[in-house]
Amino acid sequence: xxDEFKLETERLVLRDWQETDARLFFQNTNTPAVMRxxxxxxxxxxxxxxxxxxxxxxxxxxxxxxxxxxxxxxxxLGFCGLKRADAPGSTVPGEIEAGWRLREDVWGQGYAKExxxxxxxxxxxxxxxxxxxxxxxxxxxxxxxxxxxxxMTRRMDLDYVDPRFAEPLNPAIVYSIDKVAWEPR
Length: 185
Ligand SMILES: CC(C)(COP(=O)(O)OP(=O)(O)OC[C@H]1O[C@@H](n2cnc3c(N)ncnc32)[C@H](O)[C@@H]1OP(=O)(O)O)[C@@H](O)C(=O)NCCC(=O)NCCS
Fold this sequence. Notes:
Layout: E1 6-8, E2 12-15, H1 21-29, H2 44-61, E3 65-70, E4 76-84, E5 96-102, H3 111-125, E6 131-136, H4 141-149, E7 153-154, E8 173-178, H5 179-182
Antiparallel strand pairs: 1-2, 2-3, 3-4, 4-5, 6-8, 7-8
The chain binds coenzyme A.
């Protein structure tokens, strides 16, 4: 089995999932506000499917959407990390994709940006990415705002329609950043 992943930032720890994490994660993030642009609150089957995808991603790649834990009190804030893009209709299949989801009571404190910076650092430095993509939908201003604050570029040429969803969960909009653009930030 691969080594456990653990990465510290000033206020956060990004780490692999442990047995007890899922219950706390879903309790605080499987809410209408958090899931607004993610096809709504997940039922039990969807939650299990998500955990399965994270475990397989970790086993196959050594990275996944890691648990984000706040250092000073151990609170699980959500996840942030990497996967391989695999959405139906994707224009970037197999590329390293960054993603984030935090409980709503900690939004607006820079935690997502802090976790995302650490995530992009390891994408380029540890996992050999030449470029990292991130995906969202036009209405999810918090998510594409973060992509812009990270210095990612809006790639209208790569936008696509995910056939699983209707508007406003389409089109998928794509941002990207190359390793050469990230290093001198
Ligand atoms: C997307 C998401 C992770 C963004 O979280 P966030 O807390 O807004 O993002 P950041 O960490 O960058 O925080 C930015 C805000 O914190 C403020 N802030 C406060 N202290 C800060 C600090 N120390 N450093 C940076 N920003 C700070 C910024 O001014 C900014 O405020 P603003 O939104 O009023 O402009 C969050 O909205 C979320 O979980 N959404 C639901 C799930 C989702 O849709 N995920 C994306 C799917 S594509």
